[in-house]
Amino acid sequence: MIEVDHLSKTFWVHKKKPGLMGSVRSLFKREKVEKRAVRDVSFRIDEGEIVGLVGANGAGKTTLVKMLAGIIHPSSGAARVLGHTPWERHNDYRRRIALIMGQKAQLWWDLPAADCFLLLKEIYRIPTDEYRRRLAYLSEVLSIGDELNVQIRRLSLGERMKMELIAVLLHGPRVVFLDEPTIGLDLTAQRAIRDFILTYREAHRPAMLLTSHYMEDIQRLCKRILIIREGEIVYDGELARVVERYAPNKVLKVHLRRTGQKVQPTNELRALGEIVECSEDTLCLRVARDRVAEVSARLLTTYDVADLAIEEMDIGTIIERIFRERGEVQA
Amino acid sequence: MNSRLFWKVVSLEARTKMSYRVEFWISAVAAFAADFGVVWFVWMAMFRESGAETIGGWTRDGIIIYYLTVVLVGKLVRYREFTGAISHDIYEGGLNRYLVFPVGYMPYKLAQRIGLQAPRIVQFALLGVIALLLVDIPAETAPTITTIVMAAATIAMAFLLSFMLDYCIHQVAFWADNVWSLDVAKWFVTSLLGGFMLPLSVFPGWAQDIMAWLPFRLLFDLPARVLLHRADAAEWALGLAAGVFWCAALWAAGRVLWRRGSLEYTGVGI
Fold first, then answer.
1. C-beta atoms of B16 and A110 within 8 A
2. Beta bridge partners of B169
3. How far apart are CA B208 and CA B191, in angstroms?
4. What is the location of CATH 3.40.50.300 in chain A?
């Protein structure tokens, strides 16, 4: 459904020196700097998939989404979405996609949601029966009632996001771009939006590309993720395998029964793994993932163990570290 | 864009505009008082100081009626507010949603402008009636069915022309981000060369010859003179044809700007 082939986007941005003199100088001469927002990105997304696009601020997530939604033109490369080149903006294409931008309200501020939806009905030429059926379904799943008749600007952020979701899904898009749909929402509203997205995906099987800064969104919604760093895709694969690939070690934390004697960091112990902590009653070892069972067994037989815990690095932490670092991430 | 959607947008925008009724009436009275008050004081002073009976072919009462007409016509022809402005959409990223919608941006904005401007017909009619009651209008300049029909066609053309001018000028925002100063310059040029600040007949002959080739006189001067019986049927028809020509030329220029400009568009943020 979505095929992206060596897509790149470069912006030219003006650089201005700080201070008054910098401002005066920029009136006459301005320096332009090249900003490579997206570099040589390739991937594909199939029907029914929700793929998470994760990256730090400025990594190029929104630029990529805007290119695929047809808002901006790429500098090079190609993309086919539903058989169309997005930035050619064919109406056939635009009738089959949807874009929701959590940071930018798409609905008309001064109108009640019901009026906005009627306008969208005309924009997308949705037959009346179909419109009524979809609106009823979406309102029910999102628990929307009287709020339909309230001006958008008078709704809470969570209610507004629900209306945005209804608005972009009324025409039954086959591809949905969700750019930070839960940004700024409280935990309850975030959960409601996530549950809705899953329900909708099960019922309609569109391809979805989701960007979010909340790992909870990614973990709950996406089996597959793309990690983008400085415009480049550095990981494309299953979310679960991120841990295996970027965190090859686990931490074994052993609590020992008090004997009054401190455990010595012997060579034998070092051979089992990297010693992180070694005290009277606690021993912490960083151990290769494939040796965890063997090392645990050795520790249980060698020491008087009161408790043993095997700790996996939190996936959010791993991904955050991938954003920042170029090399492999160690647990 | 189909006509059903077009009129739906018009209706929605008009309803939105009218929902802020305090603002609606304050702007109606304040804008009218400001536009008309300034020129009234200036022209009264000019007649008093010069001691002349006529200036540029206009008597004192004639000029008052001319300004009343021009200010009322201006209400229907041009739109001063920033709401829904094309440059604003480009600068703030509001254009994003229109690029995702399966509709043309230009027809959508036109429908939006008609909707925003339509409630002003109420202001125009009300203030026009009050003016008719308060000002002593000579019989030969009183509106007739014929002049009203002719003026309606001219005002519609002038409205479209004003929109097309905005459509082209605001697209400079694709390159310059903020075109507020350009908008102010356009306001000044159209007011001066369109007959909003001064009747064009007070300009020297050579200036009038140049202005005859420009589109600005079609915005206020022509509709006002049609309403005041100062333009005959031939001039009216020629003016309409010129207006259609300029609209077509600006439409073509707008398409080129749109094609080039949308390549520059960043949609705000990276």
1. yes
2. none
3. 15
4. 43-243
